[in-house]
Amino acid sequence: MTALARLKRALHRFEHHGQRASPHGSVTRTFHWLAGALLIYGLFFAADVADLSDPVQLSREIAFALVLGCLFVIRLLWVAFIGGGSRLPTDAPQ
Fold it and tell me: Is residue 3 in some structural domain?
């Protein structure tokens, strides 16, 4: 038996052979990618503290923070009340 075959055999023991979790829904995926896009936007287009003396910059930063915060709250509410908590099968070990 070659070393590669022994490695494959050894790693096969660690593979999951039971039921798989169901995929995330489209709404959950949309929340995820929208939040990611907003966070990347916030990293690349962040205003310096000195820029916040300008009322336009300050209002833009406040609007950004409110949109991102609302998105997180809506996502939490979606998971808690509509989208379901766990995607794992009911017979999965805890």
Answer: no
pLDDT at 19 over 80: no
Within-domain flag for 32? yes
Structure tokens at 18: 């039971």
Q: Are 85 and 48 in contact (CB under 8 A)?
A: no
Number of domains in the chain: 1
CA quadruple 54, 57, 59, 62: dihedral positive or negative? negative
Is 54 within the bounds of a domain?
A: yes
Say whether pTM exceeds 0.85: no
The 10s digit of each residue's pLDDT in 23-49 is 778 888 899 999 999 999 989 888 788
Helix, strand or coil for residue 74? helix
The answer to the question of residue 93 being in a domain is no
